[in-house]
Amino acid sequence: MSADRTDFAAVSGYLFGLKPRGRKLGIDRMRLFAAELGHPERGLPVVHVAGTNGKGSVAAMVESILRAAGWRVGLYTSPHLVHLGERVQVNRVPLADDEIVRFVNELDPAADRVGAKYGADDRPSFFEFMTAMAFLQFKRSRCDLAVMEVGLGGEFDATNIVDPDVSVITSIGLDHCEYLGNTIEQIASAKAGIIKPGRPVVIGRVPAVAETVIRAIAASRDARVASVRDAFGEAIEGYPQTSLNGEYQRWNAATAALAVRTLDPRWSIDEHAIARGLENVAWAGRWQKTTIGGRTVVLDASHNPEGADVLAANLREFVREAGRRPIVIVGALGRERAKPLLEAIAPHAAEIHLVVPNEPRATGHAELAELVPADFGGRVVRSRVDELFPARDRCEVGTPSDPVVVTGSIYLLGEVLERIDSGAADVPPPR
Hints:
This protein is an alpha/beta fold. It has 16 helices and 14 strands. The radius of gyration is 21 Å and the shape is globular.
């Protein structure tokens, strides 16, 4: 590693420069990296969460429930919204910048040793560095349990070197097809790769063909299956409420509750802890309603076709309750994500403002404009985040009475949150 090893900007720049290596799937390199660090992941009780959508929300819910039960809990999620340290939290306290600097300086020599075995151009990736930081932080902080969210897929994800107490698959949809396959069955198989021999697996709301694949893989590994539909029914009636908004969060809440109920009884997770944890869960950017300069603004990450269907339902309900259509600000990564997103937005929006997130894979203005449905009758505006949110208490779009929905890429939501509230993604422990 070059540049100033004590400067967070230099260290984070170094880390982000490792991102292209993350495109190489497989866990052999992560196993070797962990071995060089003394296997900090071993002996750590883990709830391992995969899924096309909902895995971040479910991970946050499980963490909140476990903490409400009195346990010290590590939480590993991705991507971050505003601060890099959000990815690694202990009792919802994120890694500080100086801690990240120390970890990178500690991890870099081990990464060099991995590179010496694999080749200088095949050192650990950005995600593998962050995963290693999580393992070390959780071990040194003496976490009782950790909730680990899969980054991509499951079978070949860096987090999959854990031996979890329970695995969770929240949902299955078509996303990351270039890595995971072009069918629901192929994607289900990739995500079911987190199922370990003899360890239970919880299935959320997944298509029937996906459930068939997951159950077959679980049976081959002697892993007991717990299904949300079997446990709660299609309507998930009589279920405790969650502090997160959106109908889909009821399914996520049921999945999280079933996951903690599936843990060994020694963890003593009672119904009071489940209810309290769900009532106090904090997870920014998931149909998150806030007020900016007296106007309602909703922030909602929706980055794939399955998420677009949920967004359409939420927008429909929003229009029904508000009695008017919102102005929608949208940005996406890739045409295959932007198209269903704009199709979901168009029937419910008064105006659509197109923005390009500050991310190399972001879809440009021209392509976004091309994908707006031809029958959309409102204004389509090309804009920038700094124009729309020029200050913490200002949203410069439409009139002060117009409701606003910001949706699409989580990178876009992070940019907005950074401008309106630099601490928005750093949430305190629940009451």
